[in-house]
Amino acid sequence: MTSQDSSLLKRLLVLGTGFGACSLVRKIGLKHYDVTVVSPRNHFLFTPLLPSTTVGTNEFRSIIEPIRHIRGNVRYLQASAEKIDIENQIVTCHPTGDGERFEITYDILVIGVGAQINTFNVPGVEEHALFLKNHSDARAIRQSLISNFESASLPNLSAEERKRLLHFVVVGGGPTGVEFAAELHDFLEEDLNHAFPLLASEVRITLVDAMDEILGSFTQELRKYAREVFDREKIEVRTQSIVKVVEADGITLQEGHKVECGLTLWCTGNAPVPFIDELPVEKDKAGRILIDEFLRIEGKEEIYAIGDCANMRGKEFPPTAQVAQQEGDYLARHLNRIAKGRSQKPFEYKHLGMLAYIGGRKALADLPNFEGAGFTTWLFWRSAYLTKLVSLKNKFMVLFDWFRTFLFGRDISRF
Questions:
Q1: What is the pTM of this model?
Q2: Three-state SS across 98-140?
């Protein structure tokens, strides 16, 4: 495409490389739009399989795809958006690493910057807890797990300190927290018990949640099944437990009881990123941008918002990958129709159901026309996620990871 041709196209600026942004970029008509993507992350991350990377069931690079490979003839800039001049249609960005701020103009802006972990202002969370939002978080968890086992093996360690190091606490009983606890259980049962046989009996996993039950978005029957599986796997579940303080050596609950542990994983939902907080637009009570039925910011015809950072007025979409992906797909069609002068149709979310892994080759499926649990559902869970991966390369690598893990186990090297 020549520079002269590009100058005749609408300038479409996309902020983010998550499910919504990447779905949009893959399907937008490049005959009509000159597309620029701005994000500090230069790849798409398949987050549903992120918990499995924390223990080596899958490798980190198996679930990421460079944004430059997802669609050709799309400009990518590795930077973070800092502020928007809505009147003049200018976004100010800060490059990742060293570099001076720069400005980029747009005709149409799509905000898909996602969200960050909600700490609920609990003291010590930022300093002492680990998160699970991106691949660097997963790498830190994996390093900490192995480090704790190696430290617990030292001969001069007290019994109390060894017990603390081998206690792993997950705060948050949603799908991310549950799946991490499940993957950690498999790691212990299938790999670490053989590598550290003298420590096996001392390992504990505790799942803490402020609600009455874990996996609150699933049906009562599936929640009960998950709880029974966790009981058999000796994963302690503590519901109606609010964390008051997080410290380097454990957490303190609101009733005053301290739970000592060697690793605290914080998985308690989403909060808006600072960029969204500072935008001068109307937001809902959770801090998400309010959008209309066409995913536009109300009163701003040229600005759209999708994914976890946005919510439709009068609706309550869950902050999930499938919502963001459907919004990205819709917005690509919507903008293509606008370019062709066709009539517009409002966005309609179609709930496809929910899946969750609960360990021991068992999973849950809560779908519109099917509800299941167990080994067969685990096979369905794996096949469903496999089909959703972006590229053939990712599909092959994930399949290879599963086969390698089945034959040779997970890697326990720390490097």
A1: 0.94
A2: CCCCEEEECCEEEECCCCEECCCCCCCHHHHCECCCCHHHHHH
